[in-house]
Design goal:
Layout (H helix, E strand, L loop, with lengths): L2 H74 L1
């Protein structure tokens, strides 16, 4: 091998190593992103459930209040 071929081979091997490192970092970051997305989705489902429950409670309290207002209104007259 000539000196130029050795230098080119070394440069290629270095680029290949850098590419493999970057690819591994990308895969790691991608897996982390997927994990975070899944966690966020679970938290979002939980929050949606909580909001639904609170909405039902508010509706129930609204109905109770309306009934009490009707009863009070009947007694006042």
């Amino acid at each position: 091998m000539t000196e130029l071929e050795i230098q080119l081979l070394n440069a290629f091997e270095q680029l290949q190593t850098q590419h493999e490192t970057q690819q591994n970092e990308f895969v790691t970051l991608y897996k982390d992103l997927v994990k975070r997305f899944e966690q966020s989705s679970k938290e979002n489902q939980h929050l949606q459930s909580s909001v639904s429950s609170l909405t039902e409670q508010v509706n129930s309290l609204t109905n109770q209040l309306q009934q009490l207002e009707k009863q009070y209104s009947k007694r006042s007259h």
